[in-house]
Amino acid sequence: MARAWSKAVRTAFPGPWPARRVVGQGALALLMGAVAALLELASGEGTGTAVGAGLAVAVLWVLRPAFPATVLVLTAAATGWSVGPVVLLVCAGWSAGARIRRVGRLIGAFLLGWVLFTVTGVFKDAAVSPKLIFGFSLGGFLLFAVLPALWGRYRAQRRALLDALRERNDQLLRERVMVVHQARLRERHRIAQDMHDSLGHQLALISVHSGALEVDRTLTDRQREAVGVLRQAAVAAMRELREVVGVLHDESTAGAPAPGAAPGRGGVDGIGELVESSRAAGAEVSFSREGDERPLAAAVDHAAYRIVQEALTNAHKHAPGAPIAVALRYEPDALVVEVVNPRAPELVGARAGAAPAVSGGQGLTGLRERARLVGGMVHAGPTPEQGFRLAGVLPYEGAEGTGDGADAGVEDWLLEGLPPADGAERGRRSPALGCAVGVAVVGVTVLGLLIWGVVAFVQGTDDATVKKSVYDELQVGTPEPDVLRLLPRGNDFFTEDYKKTGPTPPEGAHCRWYLSGDLSEVWGEDNVVRFCFRDGVLVDKQHYRAKN
Q: What range defines the domain where residue 268 resides?
C-alpha cells in the first residue's frame, strides 16, 4: 500500500522539486485559486461556493503538469457550469497542447472537453435556446482552450526542434573531429606506401650495386670490405624503413582505405626509367608494350608505375642476377601490367654469411589496395619454372569516384556526413506551419460564430420584443390562440431574469414575458411586458419596469 501510494505521488508530482519550484508552484496555485474565487463572487455565487471553486482550481493547477488531458477535461466541464475556472481553462489548454505528444490523444481530449463544456452549459441554462448555447460554447472553447493549445504546441515543437538541431550540431562536430582523424590516418597510410615504394626501390638498387661490387675480383680486400659495409648499411636502412612503414601502416588501418596517390609522382611514362635504373645496376631487364596506347586516369597511371616498381624491387631482393621481363599490354577493356622473373641463379663466389633479403610484407598488400581503389586487381605468385610473376589488371577510367589523388579522396571523406542541402531542409515541414493553419482555422471559425451570434442576437431580440402598438391592441378576454398569432415566439435568453419580477400573476394562470418596444428607457431598468392566460383566454397583461 505504501509503495502504491509513493508511486501515485511520484506520478502526480514528477520531480525534481527544488525549493524554488515548490515556492513558485505554490504561489501560482494560490493565485489561480484566488482569481477563481473572485470570479465566482463577482458572478453572484455564495462565499462557500467561491471558496470551494478556488480550492478545486488550486488542486487542478498543481496536477496540471502530470495529467494535462485529465485537467483539461475537468476544467472544461467546470467552466461550462461556472465562470470561476475560465483562467485555469486557458492554462490547461496551453499545457495540454505543449505536453500531449500524441495527436490522437490531444484531439480526443479537446473534443471530450468541448462536449462536457457544452453539456454543463445546457444543464445550467436549460431555458436558453440550445442553438445559442452551442454557438457560445464552441466560440468560447476555441478562444479560451484551443488557441492557447495551439500556441503551447508551437512553442513545444519549436523547443524540441531547436534541441534536436543542437544535438545534431554537436553530433556533426564530433563526427567532423573523427573524420579529420581518419583523414590524417589515410594520409599517413599514403605517405607510408609512397615511402615503401620509392625509397625501398632505391635502397634495393643500392644493395644490388654493392652486392655486385662485392664479388668484383678487381677490387682490393679493403675496397671489398668498404663495399660490404655499404651493402650492410643499405640492408639495415631498408630494414628500418620497413619497420617504420609497418608502424605507420598498422596505425592507419583503423581508418578508411588509402586513396590513389597524387598524380605526377610516376606513371606509365616513367616505367622506362625504372627499367633503365635496374639495367644500370647490372640486372638483365626486358621491356615490351603491346596494343594501342590509351589515356589513363591519374590514379590508374600511378598504380601501374607502382606495380612495376615494387615488382623490380622484389626481383632485385629475392632473385638477384635473374633476368626480369616487364610487359605492358593495352587490352580492349583494361591495362595489364606484368613482371616475371625466373629463379635466381647460383652466384659463383658469392659472399659467405650474406644477410637474407629484408621483407616487411607491406609491398604486395599496398599494391592490392591501390588496384582495388581504382577498380582493378593484382595477382602475385610463383611460376611453374620456380620463378615469380606479378601482374595487375587496371581499368582505363578507374573506379567511379576515386578522384585524382589523395587530396580528392580526403575531400570526399570530409564531405561525408555533412547536413543535407537547403532544398532538403526546405522540404521539411516547419512546426509553425501547422500551428499557423490551426490558428487561421480557429480565427475563421470564431469570426463566423461571431457573425452568426450577432445575427442570432438581433433575431432573438426581435423574438423577445413586443411593439407598443401590439400591446395596446391586445385586450383582456381575447382567446389565447389569437393573442399568440400577434405575439412573437419569445426568447427566454432575454426574459428569463424577469419571470420573478412585476405584479403577482393571477391564480392558476401561465404567463409569457417580453421586452417592450417602448423607447422610454431608464438607466438600469428595462420595460417588461407580461401576458397571462387561463382557460384559453388572456386574463391579464402588464407593462412595468424591472431592474436589469
A: 195-344+359-415
